[in-house]
Amino acid sequence: MGENNNSNRTLVPEAADKLDKLKYETAAEEGINLKEGYNGDITARDAGKIGGNMVRKMIEYAEKNMKK
């Protein structure tokens, strides 16, 4: 219980740029205007749409690229 478990850290630092790009692409597809830097003014619903769709896309990518 004393462990510092930050769920917001990037496990693969080399992926940070690609995740950021995915975030902005997903937001644009949803019609949500994100700006560089702080976006604390967007609604929780919009943030959830972005995050949820990012996860969906990552799962689709993983499924397509898994060895059978």
UniProtKB/TrEMBL annotation:
The keyword Ribonucleoprotein does not apply. Gene3D superfamilies: Small, acid-soluble spore protein, alpha/beta type-like. One of its GO terms (molecular function) is double-stranded DNA binding. Keywords: Sporulation. It comes from the Bacteria. It holds the Pfam family SASP. InterPro entries: SASP_alpha/beta-type, SASP_DNA-binding, SASP_sf_alpha/beta. SASP are bound to spore DNA. They are double-stranded DNA-binding proteins that cause DNA to change to an a-like conformation. They protect the DNA backbone from chemical and enzymatic cleavage and are thus involved in dormant spore's high resistance to UV light. This is Small acid-soluble spore protein alpha/beta type. It comes from Ruminiclostridium cellobioparum subsp. termitidis CT1112.
